[in-house]
Specification:
Keywords: DNA-binding, Transcription, Transcription regulation. One of its GO terms (molecular function) is DNA-binding transcription factor activity. The chain has helices at 12-30, 37-44, 48-55, 58-81, 92-104, 107-119, 128-146, 153-173, 180-192. The chain is mainly alpha-helical. The radius of gyration is 19 Å and the shape is elongated.
Length: 193
């Protein structure tokens, strides 16, 4: 949107959703370091001070995007599995298949996550602590689900994470030549025996 164009007032929740959507797209295209608050503001029909009113800072904006993604994925996974969460009674392979199907339906979000996860390896990245904590939480959750499935549940959990991450990168590089869901199922046959 051009800066001279009239601005539209939206309800707070709708505006926040718009900000998160525009930011998600821009980070997926450029990475966090390539993200301009002006570009986000322009994409939402806001001024930069108006944008900052909603998110506080560029770091706050990034964390809002990540928190939103986690919440949406959690809701979708719960709905897909028909459970109240990832309890010990849920089948690990079924959980993984649901995650892969979800990710296959949202390449922009997967791209955003892959870019940020790689960028945040730098300790000074604003999402560094988020990804360290998230990795520990995911490993713990998958390890719990792998208990009883494997005599080395943490090792299986690490292999699941590595396999998913690797297949997603291949799919993002060649979306027309890689069917994420099909490749996951083939690999899962080997992984889960």
């Amino acid at each position: 949107m051009n800066r001279g164009t009239a601005r539209v007032r939206l309800p707070v929740a709708e505006r926040r959703g718009q900000i998160i959507g525009v930011t998600t797209r821009l980070i997926a295209e450029r990475g966090f370091w390539g993200l301009s608050m002006q570009d986000v503001a322009d994409g939402c029909g806001l001024t930069v001070p108006g944008l900052l009113h909603h998110v506080g800072s560029k770091d706050g904006l990034l964390l809002a995007v990540l928190d939103h993604r986690d919440a949406e994925d959690g809701r979708a996974l719960t709905a897909d599995l028909g459970t109240d969460g990832l309890s010990a009674g849920v089948d690990l392979r079924r959980v993984c298949a649901a995650l892969v199907r979800r990710n296959a339906s949202q390449p922009e979000i997967v791209r955003l996550f892959a870019v940020l996860e790689a960028e945040s390896l730098a300790p000074d990245h604003p999402a560094h602590a988020y990804f360290v904590t998230r990795q520990a939480r995911v490993l713990e959750t998958l390890t719990a689900l792998a208990t009883g499935v494997s005599d080395r549940p943490e090792s299986l959990a690490r292999q699941v994470i590595a396999l998913m991450d690797g297949l997603q990168i291949q799919w993002l590089r060649d979306p027309g030549g890689t069917d994420l869901v099909v490749e996951w199922e083939r690999a899962a046959d080997t992984l889960f025996g």
